[in-house]
Amino acid sequence: MPDVDHTPFIENIPAYAIGALDSGDVSALESHLTTCASCRTELAEYRTLSESMLTAVPPKQPSAALRKRLQSRLPGAQKTSGSQVTWSFSRLALGLAVIALLVLNLLSFAQLRQVQSQQARLLKQVENAQVALAMLSSPNIQTVLISGENVSGTILLDKDRNQALLIVGDIPALADDQIYQIWLVKPDGGRDSAGWFRPESGQSYTTKTISSTQTFSNYLGLGVTVEPAGGSDAPTGQRIFKVDF
Amino acid sequence: MIGPDDSKLIAQVAQGNERAFLAIYDRYASRVHGLTLHILGDPMLAEEATQDTFLKLWSRARQYLAEQGPLLPWLLTIARRVALDRLRLEARRPMLSDTNDPDDAWQILPDSESMSEESRWRSLYFAVQALHPDQRKVINLAYYQGLSQSEIAEVLGWPLGTVKTRLRTAMEKLREDWNNK
Questions:
Q1: What is the pLDDT of residue B114?
Q2: In angstroms, how far is the first alpha carbon of chain B from the final one?
Q3: CA–CA separation, B34 and B107 (whole Å)
Q4: Hey, which bits of chain A come out as E strands?
Q5: Share of chain A above pLDDT 70, in %
Q6: CATH number of the domain at B95-181, out of 2.60.120.40, 1.10.10.10, 2.40.37.10, 2.30.30.90?
Q7: How crowded is residue A127: how many other Cβ atoms within 10 Å of its Cβ?
Q8: How far is B43 from chain A (nearest CA, A)?
Q9: Which of 18-37 (A) contact B at CB < 8 A?
Q10: Which residue numbers in chain B have pLDDT < 50?
Q11: Which of A6, A49, A236, B12 sits a CA distance of 20 to 30 A from A163?
């Protein structure tokens, strides 16, 4: 091999090993590495150092809720087969929807006789429950479990029909000047508002149809935050939960 | 001691064993979260990145080859990539200051000679902290923020040659410290 001035290449090896070498210099170095054993040895040492630097960061314990979330999101875990998981999720969603429907209907009959303002709200709840039942009849229904610190529930998602229904249980009550706002998560990390709701007093579950001008396939997931009454243009308050589709 | 157990656990994870997965999580969650938090600087984003890292561990367990090295660096490599991707996605400005407190950073790790690997990692951490502040800044931006040398020069307003020299000098110093432990 002809004499080669290694200096410019050796000087670039540390940056290359940690991925900081500018792209314009990478190809020249990689070409040199194919013919230079000493530079390859040098690179191997810096790569070992680079790998070790991953561990040279102070440990930090994540929240206990993360472990629970992970458990609920493991697809195809050994405890149950994939088909059983899907089936049981559907059963759970169906059960929740039926319970919600029964509760909502019973309460609707009682409250419809009292005040007209309540009538409109309850009719909406019935409509949500009907949407839930209609969605559950779809063969392509996707159920997404919600598991947060203070909230649990299910999202029924039918991407074919671009319909979604949120069913949450035991969500904390809010001050009069607050609402829960729903956000759809875009691939670039941005958020689109998809409506808002308040907990339905006296009921175990709150349901809310989720509307979107775009197809749900364009979004990665959904989150809910506490926002001032009237809603916000972007999330500003406490996150209640976030799930991926 | 840790290596063989990890190999068994990851093999079980590859078979879909949730209990083995949780054992690995309990063992390394703080290491993964420490790294994602160091990179992202935001607890909520870091927790999402930690979650994504372990979900990738679950889906990619079959790709892990024990003969290519221990599990933890493999897992942390995934975590770094996930966190840097998230950093780019969020288009966050790079953090220019050190946020770690070296006095309490390693309290939960045993300072025992029997834990020789842990001891070496701890030493490397302090070696990074002992760098000249300008060198440490370059290392943090390059390694923990994913910036190229040109990008660092732009962010810090330094000549590119200065960035290259400081990065190279810092890496040489860290390698020397690492090899002398």
A1: 41
A2: 20
A3: 13
A4: 142-147, 152-158, 163-169, 178-185, 191-197, 205-210, 221-228, 239-244
A5: 79
A6: 1.10.10.10
A7: 13
A8: 9
A9: 18-23
A10: 1-4, 98-114
A11: A236
